[in-house]
Amino acid sequence: MDFNTIKANMQAATAKAQEALRHDFSGLQTGRATTALLDGLMVEAYGSVVPLNQVGAVSVPDARTLSVTVWDKSQLKAVEKAIVEANLGLNPMNDGQMIRINIPPLSEERRNEIIRIANRFTEDARVSVRNARRDAMDALKAEKSSIPEDDFKRYEKEIQDLTDQTIATMDVKLKEKEAELKQV
After folding, report:
1. What pLDDT, on a 0 to 100 scale, did the predictor assign at position 184?
2. Residue 33: its pLDDT value, please?
3. 46, 80, 102 — which closes off a domain?
4. Is there a contact between 52 and 44 (Cβ–Cβ < 8 Å)?
5. Alpha helix (H) ranges present in the chain?
6. Sequence-distant (≥ 6) Cβ neighbours of residue 65 within 8 angstroms
7. Residues 177 and 121 in one domain
8. Neighbour tally for 141: CB within 10 Å
9. Reduced to 3 states, what is the DSSP secondary structure of residue 45?
10. What is the DSSP letter of 73?
11. Last residue of a domain, which of 76, 102, 128?
């Protein structure tokens, strides 16, 4: 395997880790209504489990409210149940036509808890990047006999630089998320 392939594999793995972190951060409640809070929510409907976006539409009428318009009114109870069971700290209100969800303001304790969760998500992403670095280094070492020593050192440095750059980007995203969570 040549270095370009090794590097491309590592870049793909680090991009995947960054995307997973972005997705994890989008699901964290910041005290403002966002449709991302309900992304990935699964609803038991029509005898199977389906994503919420297949049974209804989520919208944000104002900064503290989400509304879920369910296309088949017979599924309102199932959607309401799925929201409650998701343990998002949300209290859905079913008015018979749609489900409204008021987003409560975050207490200081809850903000700190969410920041700890964001830190855990970031550390998990860092571990994924470090694993990608280890895999790339292992692949590079397997090819060491066919690579000149100067090139080998340069490739090792490139892999380390990519790792450092990706982790620094993740740390910046974490700081931005923390600042967003600390806003009252």
Report:
1. 61
2. 76
3. 102
4. no
5. 3-26, 76-85, 108-142, 149-182
6. 33, 100, 101, 102, 103
7. yes
8. 12
9. strand
10. G
11. 102
Cβ atoms of residues 29 and 89 within 8 Å? yes
**Secondary structure letter of residue 147 according to DSSP:** S
| 17-74 confidence digits (pLDDT tens) | 999 999 888 777 777 777 877 877 889 988 899 988 889 999 999 888 889 999 988 8
Domain of residue 136, residue span: 3-27+107-182
As for how many domains the chain has, the answer is 2
A 10 A CB-CB count for 57 gives 13
CA 153 to the chain's CA centroid? 34
Strands 99-102 vs 91-94: parallel, antiparallel or unpaired:
antiparallel
**Strands of 99-102's sheet, edge to edge?**
56-62, 65-70, 99-102, 91-94
Nearest to 114, CA basis, from 169, 52, 68, 183:
183
- Tokens describing residue 45: 């409907």
Question: Exposure of 17 by Cβ count < 10 A (0-12 exposed, 13-18 middle, 19+ buried)?
Answer: buried
Tens digits of residue pLDDT in 143-176: 888 889 999 999 999 999 999 999 999 999 999 9
pLDDT digits (tens, 9 = 90+) for 75-107: 889 999 888 887 777 789 988 888 999 887 778
